Amino acid sequence: MKNSSKGGYIIKLMRKIALIFITVTIISSILYYALGKKIINVASSGELDRGPGRTNAVIKQIEGEIKKITSQAREFGENFEITDKIDNEYGVEERKRIINIEKKIEKASITNMLIVNNNFEVNDIIKGTNLDINNIDTQDILNQAKDIMNKKENKGKGFFGGVITTKELSNIVGVKRINTENSKDNTYTVIINPINEVFMENINEITGRNIEIIKDNESIKNDKKIKKVTLYGRDFYCKLNEESIDIFTKFESLGNGPEYYIKLRDDRQVRNNATKNISTLIGIIMILTIICNVLLYIFIKIKVLARIININNVVNKVTKGTDLEIELQNDIYNDEISVLTGDLNKMFGRLKKYANNLEYIGSHDLLTSLINRNKLTEYISELKNNNEEFALFFIDLDNFKNINDTLGHNVGDELLCQVAKELKEYTENENVIISRIGGDEFIVVRKGKNNNDEIERFANSMLIKLNKIYSIKNYSYEIKASMGISLYPQHSADEVSLMQYSDIAMYHSKKNGGNKYNIFNKKMLESLEIENKLKNAIRNEEFEVYYQPIYCISNNKIIGAEALVRWKTEDGMLYPDKFIPLAKKTGDIVDIDMFVLRQAISLCREWIDKGKDQFYVSINASKRFLKQNNFIEIIEKELKYQNVPTSALKLEITEDEIIDDAEYTEKLLKEIRKIGIGVYLDDFGTGYSSFNHIKTLPIDVVKIDRSLLINIEEDIEAKSIVETMISLCHKLKLKVVCEGVEELAQVEILKQINCDDIQGYYFSKPLPKQLFNKFLEEF
Ligand code: C2E
Ligand code: CA
Ligand code: CA
Q: Where are the alpha helices (DSSP H) in 150-243?
């Protein structure tokens, strides 16, 4: 991901595009150059045709010159024939008058004119003062002319004209025989016009060409660079130079002199012009191409790449950040990138929606659309950060599990929705928020100064609101709720603890019958801890039974004992008030009572074995213990198992436990008594004890509570109350045991007022079995 930062890829792309443009520019330049070369070559390909044509034109000119010289030779030869006759007949003076020949000659474009004899020896020089007749070259011309003249075809005609070459020069030569009567005396007119510089200048002037006459040096035909072109029945040799083209063609000479060539030098104008023009044109095209490419690159950079970079930056922001409020600016162009921009904006929109949905799902309970635990935790943290006090109400529906299990989840869900709807009304107060944290558990947070009265009123109102008949699919269900309340910052500064505490307080409400609220306190925590340990305590044999002796006044003996349970925990001994109420709620009391029962029976067994067959142990029987199915059978079985008579066992029952389900309990107690087990009414004098009630109860003994005996030795009234109680019990044929007796004075008074049995620290505290046995032996 190295390059993804800030348009790294785009920079790469820009470089690539630049590279493409540079490559295209170079390749197109090369192609233009090659194309230009080709065009130049094509354009100048006519040179090889044009050169010989021009040369031929020059040759034609020269041929014309030859013809002229020939005809002049003929004309003047004939003139000479005539002048001869005139000279012979009229004298030389007359000739002038008749034909003014000298003047004509003078006028004619003749360089040299000779009169030669039959043997072509010079008789007379008519024109050409600078001609040296003795010159080898002149002699050569004349010798060749003689041979040519003697050729058959010329001999008949008597004249010829053409080019005769010598070592020095080429010449146009015209010869005409001047016939006489005696052919032996024949002479010849010879015109020699040297093809010299002057001549060529003249020709060049006429043709407008640049022509030279050069003597063959064999190099022309052998030069490999020279191209031979045959045109107009003639061989042309073309030599291409950089700037010019040379065309050579042989001079047709009549004699046997050396070969001379005409050389026409043509500048390669077409080619040069073509080169110049095409080069300029290609140069311009190349520059235009470069400019176009640069402009195109800049255009792409601005109109495409810059926009892509912009898109890239925005996309980067979206991918790296959490801000989805981003939107791409819609651009003024109407092209694919604009479409992409629009599409991306649509995508961002959908993303935002999607994220919002996700956020909703993450923060809400989809069933009830209340906020969920996450959002609640967030809200609580917020309150804490703002130093706001608040109360947290943990609500759990009573018996919801039953409804869910028996009527199905659909009904359960519908019920939860309706409950949520009831609760939602509280959110009209902006200080209240409500969340469902799972199952049938709701948490209500109410911010504001924590005032216990207000909180309790609020809790109560919620319970009342929730406790109603909900109808679902034509059925009606009554719902109650249990509630626990924890307070911030009073109970804890930590939200997890606060939730836990409210849960514990709720649990308390539930344990106490539900449809209640409880504000958390530290004791709940303790009892919770105990409750958790209680489960394992029986299995781990952590309970021990202590026995408190019961003294019989009439025979001054210990006649029995009350079995009282103790819990030896890691942290020391726990007394019943710490765990019995809890065990009663959790139901663990059944196991505890059962354990105590067995221990008590085995103690009885021991003392019966020792001969004390009247010895008994009374055990405290909780309501749950009594309400077990087949309770009688269970007890009988236990007694039988250790072979202990039913008379050795007494059951202590408190009044409030009987009241709860009086009919059932009274029936049970009757059955218990029927099999010979004595029933003791425990803690008499506390609560709503009334003799009217006692009258009808199937009991044998009343245990007067310690609280009634406290001041009995000083307080006459207290004494008389107890005295009355005892006498009334006796009237009802009930025995009386006074418990919690600590002083001798109390013992004395109890004796005085006819109490039957006494139990209390005065005789002994409850003792572990071994110590109890020792105490009993020694008493
Ligand atoms: P209780 O049945 O009224 O038991 C008598 C309580 O008075 C015992 O307390 C005993 O230790 C205490 N006591 C006896 N003499 C004196 C005295 O002279 N002065 C004072 N201050 N107290 C005296 P304990 O053992 O703490 O038991 C408390 C209660 O727990 C019992 O009250 C009984 O209701 C219940 N309990 C004890 N063991 C069991 C049991 O195994 N099963 C059930 N269901 N309840 C039990
Ligand atoms: Ca008792
Ligand atoms: Ca008692």
A: 152-157, 197-207, 219-222
